[in-house]
Amino acid sequence: MGSNGKSFVFEKPILLKSGTNTITLLSATVGLKNYDAFYDMVPTGIDGGPIYLIGDENVTTDLSSIYGLIRRMTWYKTSFKTPAGIDLVVLDMQGMGKGQAWVNEKNIGRFWPSLIAGNDSCSATCDYRGAYNPSKCVRNCGNPSQRWYHVPRSFLSSNTNTLILFEEIGGNPQQVSVQTITIGSICGNANEGSTLELSCQGGHVISEIQFASYGNPEGKCGSFKQGSWDVTNSALFVEKACIGMESCSIDVFAKSFGLGDATNLSARLAVQALCAHN
Question: From the CB of residue 156, how many other CB atoms can be counted at a distance below 10 Å?
């Protein structure tokens, strides 16, 4: 293998089962050297080989020439019609491995849906109180870290669009699809002294305040509920600031809710709103 202009031999004990075994070697490079003489000759990754499978009795099998050993990076190109309407447009990259996408020569970003989150970290409850650790409030266990990728409508033409995918480790492009998403509910919460911002996408406006509480509300988006204390006019204040708007911002201060100076209050504002066509 090549690394930083040097070569080394990598050996790893493995356990094989009876029958067919799949051996996968992945070599990835983040960035390449692009200066100095002969920079294009600097080896990286699996540098030539050979690749051997050595048995218990020093029986050696050369795997280098086995068909299918090298999974080549692949370019895919297709076209699609612009979805009707004003809803958000996304690429569903399910089935792909790892790579990068372009729509009409605009970079959508890197995709890696083959990276699956573990199954053992999620819980039915979520509580951020206390010291933080990465396992708190983990969601989407057993699923890709990201599957849908936003395509701004400003990237799209009025008729036909070109989609290009660069796949690094192998995938099934027949599972890729162009979809639209309608965002119904939006949520936000902000502590005393900060600003809460809400925004609908795709030309939608805030049509209804489903929940609003200034005090110590509990729960999370979709399941907010009032805590032990609450200002009764919270919803009216938020409705006045946000109804009919594509986006709104609310300064979270006790005075705004008629409480006077409340710098010692550990209050916050939680809001859930509904977006709809204007």
Answer: 19
The domains located in the chain, with CATH, are 1-70 (no CATH), 74-181 (2.60.120.260), 185-277 (2.60.120.740)
> Model pTM greater than 0.90?
no
From its phi and psi, is residue 19 left (phi > 0), alpha (psi between -120 and 50) or beta?
left
For 256, the 3-state DSSP assignment is: helix
Residue among 107, 110, 102, 106 nearest 77 (CA): 102
The 10s digit of each residue's pLDDT in 116-143 is 877 777 777 777 778 888 777 777 788 8
Q: Which of 171, 187, 144 is nearest to 274 (CA)?
A: 187
Amino acid occupying residue 177: S
d(CA 74, CA 113): 16
CA-wise closest residue to 106 among 53, 51, 156, 57: 156
pLDDT tens across 202-239, in order? 778 999 999 999 998 988 888 889 988 888 889 999 99
